[in-house]
Specification:
single chain, NDUFB10, mainly alpha, 5 helices, elongated, membrane
Length: 171
């Protein structure tokens, strides 16, 4: 194959993009707007975003390992201390979610044991079923009959009433 091509034999097709030809000497205002936008809005935002990303890469924060400090129970809050009420309510909600997950994990273990053991499930899964009974009884004692909209105050009153009934039954 020869090194120099015959340009007349193989003509290059014209480009489809038209070449902009300026007919005026007035500059395009869009160019000024784009430049102003870049320096006024885009550059500072990009700089701040990159700075935050660099800072975050240095200090990794794993949100799924968040640990909350234990706060006083609702019974330990002083009267009129609304911040303490709020913190105790948030703590109660976290505790309830943890207890729900514990019951769910034990329930899944029992289901897996039943699936694995088949017809021998009653004798081979007795420990897991006993644990499930204990966990669900503890959950029911603490959170049962509170409903979806239960709160820390209602739970505390339920525990108080249960303790009073136990004292009456003991006498």
């Amino acid at each position: 194959m020869p090194e120099d091509h015959d340009w007349e034999a193989y003509k290059v097709p014209p480009t489809r993009t038209p070449v902009s030809e300026r007919t005026t000497s007035v500059p395009n205002p869009v160019d000024y707007f784009q430049t102003a936008f870049n320096y006024v809005l885009d550059a500072p935002v990009t700089f701040v975003r990159e700075w935050i990303e660099r800072w975050q890469n240095k200090n990794k924060f794993y949100y799924y390992h968040q640990k909350f400090r234990r706060v006083p129970d609702l019974s330990e809050c002083l009267e009129g201390d609304y911040l303490c009420y709020y913190e105790a309510e948030a703590q109660w909600r976290r505790d309830r979610m943890v207890d729900q997950e514990i019951v769910e994990i034990v329930r899944e273990r029992v289901a897996a044991c039943k699936q694995r053991e088949g017809p021998n499930q009653f004798q081979n899964c007795a420990k897991e079923m006993e644990l499930l009974a204990q966990v669900t009884k503890a959950y029911q004692d603490r959170y049962g009959d509170l409903g979806y909209h239960g709160n820390a105050r209602a739970c505390l009153m339920k525990q108080k009433h249960r303790m009073m009934e136990e004292r009456k039954a003991a006498q």
